[in-house]
Amino acid sequence: MSLTSTLKLNNGTEIPQVGLGVYKAEPGDEVYHAVKSALELGYRHIDTASLYGNEEGVGQAIKDSNVPRKDIFVTTKVWNDEQGYDETKAAFKRSLERLQMDYVDLYLVHWPVPGKFIETYKALEDIYRDGKAKAIGVSNFEPHHLEELLKVAEIKPVANQVELHPQLQQKAVRDFCEKHDIKVEAWAPLGKARYFDHPVLQELAAKHNKKPSQVIVRWQYQSGIITIPKSVHQERQQENVDIFDFELTTEDMDKMASMDENKRIGPHPDEFDYGV
């Protein structure tokens, strides 16, 4: 087990289970150095998005690294104001240009924009057929969005990236995705460090001589969740993924499950301001 440990997606593509998220990493030097240092530490999965405004820095860091492109799993996403069939094709082309890449490993519909996400996904299917994305999926989709999509999709999404951390464990989403062989990926996996002082995390961190962040990432890893903790600091990047030398027991996992309060940091997908 290591940072190169992968899960197999439903189309056969392998995705490193632990990666680096770059949401709110500043474009330019900050994101460039964050990605460069993560790759030096052994990360092989980088998650960005059109919205983040930092695809250029991500692409340049990958290009300047000593790691072959084929060994790095790169995700990006189409933003809400870029959705629709033709708009998505154009947005994807812009993302590729910014990343300086011929393809991405995973392309996601960032949010289920009402009246648009089906057409957007159809564009993703064509991008996939053209070999420009090795896999396609969605983000922030509730089960009812997935049900609507699965009725018409010709290519099943491989993943659904959602807000997921100990206080928002997304059982209904996870159960639906497991039933349909769609992997769940966590954004804000550390809950933005808002409750590291929670008694359960403190207890398990002390028990395993680890930090609360490491307990959380390990819990997600053992739960089969793809996780992308974000940090622009190399020492924190190292700390976040120092999870392969301990294991949570069944009792530990039950204690983690008890932390679920259905408490969100971001908006619920059904209450998001889509501006439509």
UniProtKB/TrEMBL annotation:
Keywords: NADP, Oxidoreductase
PROSITE patterns: ALDOKETO_REDUCTASE_1 (PS00798), ALDOKETO_REDUCTASE_2 (PS00062), ALDOKETO_REDUCTASE_3 (PS00063)
Domain NADP-dependent oxidoreductase: residue ranges: 27-260
Record InterPro entries: AKR, Aldo/ket_reductase_CS, NAD(P)_OxRdtase_dom_sf, NADP_OxRdtase_dom
Statement: the UniProt record of this protein carries the keyword NADP: yes
Family: Belongs to the aldo/keto reductase family.
Protein name: Aldo/keto reductase
Source species: Gracilibacillus kekensis
